[in-house]
Amino acid sequence: MKAVLSSCTSSPPPGTSTISGRRRAKSHGQRGSIAVLSALFIVALLSFAALAIDVGYLFVVRNQLQNAADAAALNGANNLYRPGTTFKAYSWVNAEGSALTALQQNVADGANLNDASIDSGYWNTKTYAYVTPASASPGPNDVPAVRVSVSKSSGHNNGPVKTYLAQFIGVSVVPVGATAIAVAAAPDTITPGGLLPIVVSQCRYDQAWDSTKTPPQPRLQNNAPVQLYIGSGTPSNGSPVCQKDNSLFSDLTNVNRDNNPDTYENNASTIKMMGDMFNKNSGGSLNGNPNPVSLANPVWILGQADQIAQNVLPKIKACSAAGNKSCEYSTVMLIDNTEGQKLKPIISFVCVRIVDATYSSSGNYYLTVEMSTRCQNDKSAGLASPRSVYRIGLAM
Known about the structure:
Blueprint: H1 2-9, H2 19-78, H3 92-103, E1 107-108, E2 111-112, E3 117-124, E4 130-131, E5 142-152, E6 161-162, E7 173-174, E8 176-185, E9 189-190, E10 199-201, H4 202-208, E11 209-210, E12 217-218, E13 220-221, E14 224-225, E15 227-232, E16 250-251, H5 261-265, H6 268-276, E17 293-294, E18 298-301, H7 306-319, E19 329-335, E20 343-345, E21 348-359, E22 365-371, E23 380-381, E24 389-393
Parallel strand pairs: 8-24, 10-19
Antiparallel strand pairs: 1-2, 3-4, 3-5, 5-8, 6-7, 9-17, 9-23, 11-12, 13-14, 15-22, 16-18, 18-20, 19-21, 21-22
């Protein structure tokens, strides 16, 4: 009987409640709320993970595509002139084919790239507009260009980029693309390593370069480019008006100058600085300018600078067309005139073919050069153009 009474008193009558019952109900409710919040937190966590992992990877693929577009466009622009020639009409087909070949040597998202939208035409340096040859004739501010647009999208290069965690929020693939335009034009700035400390006067330049032609090209003499002589004790260059433009070198550093140009030009530090520009760096190329050099920058025009010539000209000869050809096609500075020892602003950067260098104890220190279109200088910038535009140092 006690057992029955004990059993009855342990279960409250219907309609009654106890403190422990309310606590159990509240506990069940809290567990349900925590479960919902946990689910929401997991979704949010996956979303952030998707952003951190998938978006980061998309940027990696985007950079891979941009690098491929850059390389393809630059290679195309480098081949706008027919191979093996110093000048001719632009070869649009050759440029586009060269761009595609370069593109297909690149990888994005773990696979080789196969296709891109490639066209060639003219880039306007004032309006930053791209004009194809079929739509308009080139104007005074138009320069030849190659445009490459590459993407991983539906039907192109194995399709869009597949995501990882973003699939959990309904995003399984994302298209990615990049565009680059490379132009064949004289740049506004030469970055370190792309410029030799040699100056050409406007007078001599006009003797050897025909800017009225399309494309602009060297003037010819006996079916060969006109040769110029720059320096001291040079053979005749034809026009007497140019005879005083004999300076050969320019200082490209910000060293302090004293009041005696001859002392400055022939002191040990200047001679070493000039010589270092023609030494080989670890990559095997000429060192060139140590700092960026831009149009309108004033540069110090050196005089005859015999000691510099004695030190530097043998190095130039060794890398010229008469030597190992490593500096045969070089970007140099155009100055209005090179008379005297003074600061002069840079008018333009131009391409020369260094044929030979002459130096002798009698004081004959000079270069034999031709104007050219074959400098393929990727150490350049400027034209106030979009960052996707690359330049090569062709004289224009």
